[in-house]
Amino acid sequence: xxxxxxxxxIVIISYILYKGYKNTQDxxxxxxxxxxxSSHSPTIRILHVSDMHLENISITPDQLYxxxxxxxxxxxxxxxDFLDRxxxxxxxxxxxNILKKLQPTYGAYVVFGNHDxxxxxxxxxxLKEVFHEHGFKTLQNEREMIEVNGKxxxxxxxxxxxxxxxxxVKSYQNVGEGYxxxxxxxxxxxLHMAEHRFDYLLSGHFHGGQIHWPKPYHLVKMGxxxxxxxxxxxxxxxxxxxYISEGLGQTGINIRFGSQPEITYHDILLDDVVxxxxxxxxxxx
Length: 285
Ligand SMILES: [Fe+2]
Known about the structure:
Layout: H1 2-25, E1 28-34, E2 43-49, H2 61-68, E3 75-79, H3 89-100, E4 108-111, H4 121-133, E5 136-138, E6 142-148, E7 151-158, H5 168-171, E8 179-184, E9 200-203, H6 224-227, E10 233-237, E11 240-244, E12 262-269, E13 283-284
Parallel strand pairs: 1-12, 2-3, 3-4, 4-5, 7-8, 8-9, 9-11
Antiparallel strand pairs: 2-12, 6-7, 10-11, 10-13
Helix pairs in contact: 2-3, 3-4
The structure holds fe (ii) ion (FE2).
């Protein structure tokens, strides 16, 4: 009797883990479109990948390439949590090589997440070097200006909020006119950005809950946005849109329930129509 129940228990748990693992292989390709379609502003297509968590990623570089090779992209944005362990760093290289093959017109930009900062300083330095050697620009409270058909676009990389590394003043230093595209890992930073305008912000961090069933109780500890049930997709802060990617890899155990790994294309009309007037801070889903 006891052994019968034990075997049944093991079979059920194995089945649940198998189903959860299969869910991690089902990568969604999502699209957002932003801006006023009647404006004549230049457009930009961004490929956004977040939370690769290379210790627990189910999509191989070749499979990823098959998903993304048919589209021209103008810019690549990687919003942190690549890995936690130094011996995973070489695993990043084939992914960077396939992303590089897309030859984004305006380059590829990287911000780091809380997991990347688990690395010892010298290993973190190595991680950064790998990005630089492969032509990816890292932004830690820094910005880069690009010009898209005559329109200035400030790419503002705000360092990770959850580990206390965000420095908004430094990030916005010398940021001039133009479209403000913010890249950051933890979207909770938007709640502190009343004085720092953005036209669009890309982030990740929550994995859409990862195990979002029956309820993502563990997200309660992950800041105010999570408690407001904003853990994935497009939302607004004071009228300005921000996007939370569900991420490509998994943390802890390589399973997902009620969430799906994703890569995202953002097609943006660079018309910065959203005016950030001083007023009530409002969040709308
Ligand atoms: Fe993550």
